[in-house]
Design goal:
about 30% helix, single chain, five-stranded parallel β-sheet, 17 helices, globular, 25 strands, alpha/beta, binds flavin-adenine dinucleotide
Length: about 500
């Protein structure tokens, strides 16, 4: 059997390749850059361990636990310090602990009495029945109130999507909240009465799911999967074109080093400006695309005549002599991926007034700071900073301030230090500093995102043996992408068996 092609060696592609290989199905993983892991990037340097992309995996599904076990990584798994449970949200220009119980909620200074009353009223707010797709901001204002949006949800949305709550879709970005309203008529009733259903499915709600990393950071997971895949992983190889044949797929590959220095201060994470490229072709039985939506938009796809693809609804259409027309997929370039800069700073313990015990702090726009949020990395995991020091990982940019993410590294560090001075009482100069820019960080599942998902399904239905998986389709969290990688294997296997 010809190998299955996996495009992209981020966590989705590596998970899919790992499980296909375990089933005895040959695979080849093509990765445009010179490293595996995609946006996952851990750096060990001089006693510091910095994470620039994701910091933790939320164990929301048994499939995530199973992957860690199957990869042989149980002994390297690192659970957070139990003291790091506290999460802070900034209000009145200082971090306030988020309430952990109903009693805490009644006494917290994070919300006014009016907001607390809005929660008590929530179970009696009628569900929306007109079928109109709503933003998360609209939903929160309807079921709770403006204060919840401005002082809690805005910060939460910055923490997950670096996004704009007025644009993010309730249906696509927060499907579980929508399901609570649809199934139980209320968020609070759904939390109480939905517990049994969640338990039966084995799924764990994101706010309750255990989180973890590995002894040397999250990079351990992609690195381990890549070692087990061996020669099947082809780095510095960009897939530029997919051509369907009667027998499978021919991939056009552009080999050569993509200039990429994601671990250098202030350098660009995903730049693909061309260098000397050597073009080749390879035959495959099926293709699983696990790259990014903006690179998908650049792929050329040619389908066999007779697939009946009707590209009338797409503006940009490729017509080939011997093949049916197929959209160039340029539609996917509309998906917004705002830039985010990760700024990892290390300080001497005595230079930080705040205890920094906890997961970190989220900052709503209304508070007027530049950073979106900060993770208290060395409180979360024990080995992130040398003795007597702590590590703080802050994020700048997103939909809130995209232009700030593009500032040079020294300006980013200065902005972050100023915000940390006010919020955490940080006084000294950083003992460690490292910035990484993600020019296109996280896809925004904005209102209307359904049409991109529908287009993917439509192409899959017409182009037998072509599959889409990953953060742009099945959810942006690491857990979502791992589950996406596991699930796509079942579909690909079914296709190969039928073939
Ligand atoms: C700054 C930041 C912080 C985050 N924090 C968290 C967090 O704390 N917790 C959490 O759960 N999630 C977090 N996320 C989200 C999560 O990390 C990602 O959604 C997930 O890692 C995406 O994995 P992926 O494999 O789908 O895509 P990617 O990691 O983007 O990998 C895609 C790969 O495909 C390659 N590629 C694309 N096109 C081609 C092509 N044509 N040919 C060959 N290769 C190609 C790319 O080079 C890339 O390596 C964060 C994301 C970012 C950016």
């Amino acid at each position: 059997m010809k190998p299955v092609a996996i495009i992209g060696a981020g966590i989705t592609g590596l998970t899919a390749a790992f499980y296909l290989k375990r089933k005895g199905i040959p695979v080849t993983v093509y990765e445009a850059s010179g490293r595996v892991g995609g946006v996952i990037q851990s750096l060990r340097q001089d006693g510091w361990l910095a994470e620039f992309g994701p910091n933790t995996i939320l164990e929301t599904s048994p499939k995530i636990t199973q992957l860690v076990r199957d990869a042989g990584l149980e002994t390297r798994r690192l659970n957070p310090d139990p003291k790091a449970e506290a999460r802070y949200v900034v209000r009145y220009k200082r971090p306030i602990a988020m309430p952990g119980s109903p009693f805490d909620f009644l006494t917290t200074k994070l919300f006014t009495a009016k907001a607390k009353l809005a929660v008590l009223r929530e179970p009696f707010v009628p569900r929306r029945r007109d079928g109109v797709e709503e933003s998360i901001a609209g939903f929160v204002k309807r079921r709770l109130n403006q204060e919840f949006l401005d002082h809690a949800i805005d910060a939460l949305v910055a923490g997950i999507y670096a996004g704009d709550p007025h644009r993010l879709s309730l249906t696509h970005a927060f499907p579980k909240l929508k399901a609570l309203e649809d199934n139980y008529g209320s968020l609070i009733k759904g939390q109480i009465f939905g517990a049994g259903a969640r338990k039966r499915s084995g799924e764990v709600a994101k706010d309750r799911a255990p989180k973890f990393s590995f002894d040397e950071g999250l990079q351990v997971l992609p690195d381990t999967l890549a070692v087990q895949l061996g020669d099947a992983v082809k780095l510095n190889t960009t897939v530029t074109k997919l051509t369907q044949t009667t027998d499978g797929w021919v991939l056009t590959l552009s080999e050569g080093r993509v200039p990429q220095a994601p671990l250098a201060t202030g350098e660009i994470g995903d730049s693909q400006s061309s260098s000397l490229r050597n073009e080749t072709q390879a035959e495959h039985s099926a293709v699983i695309y696990c790259g990014t939506a903006f690179r998908l938009a650049e792929l050329k796809v040619e389908l066999l005549r007779g697939t009946g693809f009707q590209p009338v609804s797409f503006s940009s259409v490729e017509v080939r002599d011997r093949q049916d027309a197929c959209p160039t997929l340029s539609t996917f370039s509309e998906i917004r991926y705002p830039p985010v800069a990760s700024v990892v700073l290390g300080f001497r313990r005595e230079d930080v007034a705040h205890s920094c015990e906890g997961f970190g702090m989220l900052i709503p726009r209304i508070e007027g700071f530049k950073i979106l949020g900060t993770i208290f990395s060395s409180s979360l995991f024990s080995n992130r900073a040398p003795t007597g020091h702590l590590t703080l990982t802050s994020y700048i940019g997103g939909e809130r301030y995209p232009e700030l993410a593009l500032l040079p590294a020294e300006k980013l560090v200065a902005l972050v230090c100023e915000d940390l001075r006010v919020l955490l009482g940080v006084t000294g100069k950083p003992a460690f500093q490292h910035c990484v820019l993600y020019p296109k960080a996280i896809p925004q599942y904005n209102v209307g995102y359904g049409r991109y998902r529908e287009l993917m399904s439509e192409i899959e239905n017409k182009a037998a043996g072509l599959f889409f998986a990953g953060h742009y389709r099945d959810g942006v969290s690491l857990g979502d992408t791992i589950v996406s990688g596991v699930n796509i294997v079942e579909r690909a296997e079914k296709f190969l068996t039928a073939k």
